[in-house]
Amino acid sequence: MIRQLIRTGCLVWAFLIGTGVWFNPAGYALPVATDQVLKDPAVAHGTLSNGFQYVLMKNTTPKDRVSIYLNIFAGSAHETDEEQGIAHFLEHMLFNGTEHFSPGELVTYFQSIGMDFGADVNASTSFFHTVYDLSLPSGDQPHIDDALRVLKDYAQGALLLEEEIDRERGIILAEKQERDSVSYRTFKAGFEFELPGSILPQRMPIGTTPVIEAADQKLLRQFYDRWYRPDNMVLIMVGDMDIDAVEQWVFDRFQSLEPRMSESLYAPKGIPWEPHKGIKPFHYHEPEAGNTRITIEQIEYTDFSYETENTLLQEVTRTLADTMLQNRFSRVIQDGQVDFSSASAYSGRFLDYVSSAAVTATCDPGNWETSLAQLEKLLRQAMETGFTREELDRVKADFLSRVESEVRQADTRQTPDLARSLRNAVQDKKWFLSPTQARDLLTPHVQDLTLDAVNAAFRATWDADHRLVMVTGNAQISAEPTSAQDTILKVYQDSSRQTADLFEISEAKSFPYLPVPTVPAAIEAQREDVKHLGITQIDFDNQIRLNLNQTDFQEGRFLFKVACRPV
């Protein structure tokens, strides 16, 4: 196997040069080194001499299925001002004629393997990535060979015919118009407020109408040749397949790829923004929105770096704190103590370079002021007084239970889910661990976490010297933007001067369970295969009926439901 040859070291150096297996020469600076994120020993990964990376994992649930992603480390953030929308346009064009597939032939291919066809079904473009995906009905050589031929054509064989460009232009313009929704406009406006001066809000993947209307073969080819190069790609394959054989087929198919431009790759420029300071209000009115959304947020620039054991454990700690605050939100909503109908708390990194912590709530437009004040108090109360031992014990128990459950159900993981997880790990520079590895690493950390440590982590998440206070949706605060922002600021400041004690912290009470019977109930009757459904029905002498149905749907897991019969 190729990966075994890589691991043998310098003794086979001469052979490796001849076969094209890559030892990370200094001439390449890969966007992501897969060996720094893929920790699960079940994952095979390697890099060819041209910098092309591959990630392979065998999984037999469901049987005879293979999920494939070809990830290009380039998206709308890599575009120049004159290329806004070209990454997405190019994604569409790769379905309209390549070296081995004339325009329209890919439709027949997708149908032959049982896939739906559509550029937005089989591919996607985001700020930093363009991804092409395939789902195969078999992991045998004919199916995988055909799939690799398609993916290699994506990588270097685009025809970019002018007549196809003109045809696809209308489709993309129609898609752009369709995407111009309430939620999209609200997101874009809020994005510009959150990251002032950053290039990201100006690089929405759908692009701009003038660029789309003027796009031609030269402009598309320029982006294609610059970014679709072997050292800027990773192939991810998961499924019921022979890993050794597939590894060789990948090697044979992709080792001949070469960069088509000599210029070096560069990371997206212009991403940092002017750091926020103080309290900054924001209002965006969309009368067609179905509700009003309140957000209190802190946001900062962060370097896009690899996850480490330390950063992973820190993230777990913050997640537990966020979950406790989320539980408080659920409690006050259920008890009718607040005017918002839903709320959430989250923190972490997104879009590679953005570190954020936020609490959000959804309410009716007439309740935005009280909802904002209530949300502010709940957040401040958690920061000032912290969480309780009972709250921490609950989230720790839930977390540890999930970790153990994932270990028990490891053999039933679905191939599409694993492929997406691998893709996300590579894209985000996050560790990909086996369930057992995750349990062995995270369980001791969570068990040893003290209340002081979790409270300190939560406060540190929110220690930035600013707050972004956002009200979006159908709340008509004022016809003048400045006046609306002043109103939001006043509501927030008035709330911050009041005592933060909205959540009632009380001692946990024992649930009044009935005493455990000293004598087990006796079976009065038992019936097999009830209604020919494979159900066993058991009646006990305490008027309890048990219905059992054994399945192999998810190994190591059972579901139950308790229902009371009317008296």
Describe this structure in words.
The chain has helices at 2-7, 13-19, 86-93, 105-112, 141-156, 162-179, 182-194, 209-214, 217-227, 243-254, 309-334, 368-385, 389-408, 415-428, 435-448, 451-461, 481-496; strands spanning 43-47, 53-58, 66-72, 123-125, 130-136, 233-239, 278-285, 292-301, 340-350, 354-363, 466-473, 523-530, 535-540, 545-548. It has 567 residues and is an alpha+beta fold. The protein folds into two domains: 29-254, Metalloenzyme, LuxS/M16 peptidase-like (Cytochrome Bc1 Complex, Chain A, domain 1), CATH 3.30.830; 278-496, Metalloenzyme, LuxS/M16 peptidase-like (Cytochrome Bc1 Complex, Chain A, domain 1, 2-Layer Sandwich). Strand 12 and strand 13 (535-540) form a beta hairpin. The protein is globular. Residues 1-27 have low confidence and may be disordered.
What is this entry, summarized?
This protein is an alpha+beta fold and 567 residues long. Helices cover 40% and strands 18% of the residues.
